[in-house]
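Justification of computing resources. Each target in the renewal requires a structure prediction run like the one illustrated here; the chain below, 238 residues long, is used simply to show the kind of job we budget for.
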Amino acid sequence: MQRQRICLLVLVILLVVFVAAARKQAWGQAKQAAYPAMAPKNQYLMPDKDSEIALARSAAPASISGGAEVQVLGPDGYTIAATGGNGFVCLVERGFAAATDDPVFWNPNIRGAICVNAPAARSYLPAVLLKARLALQGKSKTEIAQAVKSAMDSKQLPALEPDAMSYMMSKQQYLDDNAKNWHPHIMLFVAGDQTKSWGADRPDSPVMAAYDSDDRMTTFFFWVENWSDGSPAPHDMH
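Resulting structure tokens:
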């Protein structure tokens, strides 16, 4: 009898461990597969052009975005919706502006309002526009990554210029399903993998960094205190 009880207890423990492991694996697979492929094209588009222009301009203070060119996303890619004169370009990035291995790449909810300065407009933005155009043509992640690589290797895409930067200070932006609008910030774009050169992501370091292997550049993130409309951002945002 005692031996039977021990065997039964062992079986119960093994069953609990197996179920827990299976749940963990299933949860991980579900998380990884949240956006495994492109959603219907219309889910990436904003039907109201004026609303997209307003969201794009909200990426930076009005003193900057008010004089900027604005581009909006259509069925075939981005087009100019408003001309500017200060060298800045504002638009609403979708998930496919990210690296092709980023989990948000096909997320149709992404609305990343951004205003880039003139050096970034000339050297960062072309890759964003190319990836959007290819995504809307139905290309796969692999095809998009290869197209960007080929364009860079052949110099069809320009090398990243010094001083390229952008504003992402919109209270209405949607950057992913967890962070939502995250925090108002500015970004500096630097060629190559420079994630370690500024001590980024170290304990107590105010600098965050991410390397994009598709675009062959490092993005440095710096939080700012206020949204583009001047209202303060909460300090406990993640």
